Amino acid sequence: MASINEVKDAQNNPPEIQSNPPEIHVTVEDGRDIEPPTHDNVMGFDTISQQSFPENRNQALFSSRRSPTITFGRAVGVTRLHQVWPGKNIFLFGGRLVCGPDPRGLVLTTVSIAISTLVFCMYVGQNFSSDSALIITFAVILSSIVLFSLFLVGGTDPGIIPRNEESPLSSELLREDGRMKSRRVEANGMETKMKYCTICMIFRPPRSCHCAICDNCVERFDHHCPWVGQCIGLRNHKHYLAFLSSALLLYLYISAFCWAAIKERMSETDAGLFNVMGRMPETVALSLFSFVIIWFLGGLTTFHLYLIAINQTAYENFRLRHIGRTNPYDKGTLNNLREALCGKVPPSEVDFRAEVNPTWFPGVGKKMEGGGFGVGEKHQPTPAVEKGTGSQRFEEVDLRV
């Protein structure tokens, strides 16, 4: 039993709880006081301590607004960027595949294509005795191309823009009403805005947008496709177009042979259309499903080919038409097609497999010489990007202040 003196000592000197983060009060440059967010302990992270914060605490406290997605890797004691990335993406194979937050659309699309091909091979291709092997083989090859294109779309980084590690909360960036200023650049002689993203804490490059579903700013954002569960942007738009066109070709192929099989059965049995359709329910169901998919894919493919011809994204098409602005990026039909279809896919701006400091708050900056990622410096856009004459990708995505 503890003595009275021991109880008094315990009351006067309570034990220090190491797992709680220190209470920190931050005053930013414009004189306003800001309460830093609290961070729960995350698997694989060191306990947050006073030493975890850099001297300039503004650079560390505003980097993450959500709990990071945790994935497991083989390396023990190594924290990689995909494990602490504050977006909602799902990372597979140690960060090699970057998927959207909801895989149900991708799974549903994959299953639909696989079942369609299986039914075709089992019930339709067998009706052509002389050429059945060739017909089935071509269907399997075409289906494999479609699935490969689908997985490229769903597992490729769409063009995620690195996040800023430093909150630019200064009077220079705030308007009189307290809102963040926007920057303006010139593209093909027309002025366009670079809006500030309060989540990624960057001035987004032209043609970029923050996807609310994936919680990332994406270069040349087109749209978020629920059927592949992924954003469509600069780095996977070409794969998306390949998926649409190959899937359209597959279902045209399936539909044509379905009706050919029905017609051949009618000639063999000398029966009416409805009589034959009653004897071939699988073929009829597949042909009707293919008919619906053809209209859906045909409309999407035509629409995106039109957008490529005028060098416009789906997001820009809706937004510019809504506000009545002209397209400043149109270079002519041939140049637009050449740029979209023959251009190289640029490398990812974010290395999700890079090793990071376990006590580092999830932002993305320049890789330090000593390894890992640290607090990035402020970057200014080059004159070429300011004038709109830089590369089509606007490689200076460090338009961050």
From TrEMBL:
Membrane topology: Multi-pass membrane protein
Segments of this protein annotated with the region Disordered: 1-23, 374-401
Domain of life of the native organism: Eukaryota
InterPro entries referenced in this protein's UniProt entry, alphabetically: Palmitoyltrfase_DHHC (IPR001594), PFA4/ZDH16/20/ERF2-like (IPR039859)
Cellular compartment(s): Membrane
Signal sequence interval, chain numbering: none
UniProt keyword list: Acyltransferase, Membrane, Transferase, Transmembrane, Transmembrane helix
GO CC terms of this entry: endoplasmic reticulum; Golgi apparatus; membrane
Catalytic activities: L-cysteinyl-[protein] + hexadecanoyl-CoA = S-hexadecanoyl-L-cysteinyl-[protein] + CoA
Ranges of biased composition (kind: Polar residues): 10-21
EC number: 2.3.1.225
EC top class, as a word: transferase
Domain notes: The DHHC domain is required for palmitoyltransferase activity.
Protein family according to the UniProt entry: Belongs to the DHHC palmitoyltransferase family.
Protein name (database record): S-acyltransferase
Organism of provenance: Amborella trichopoda
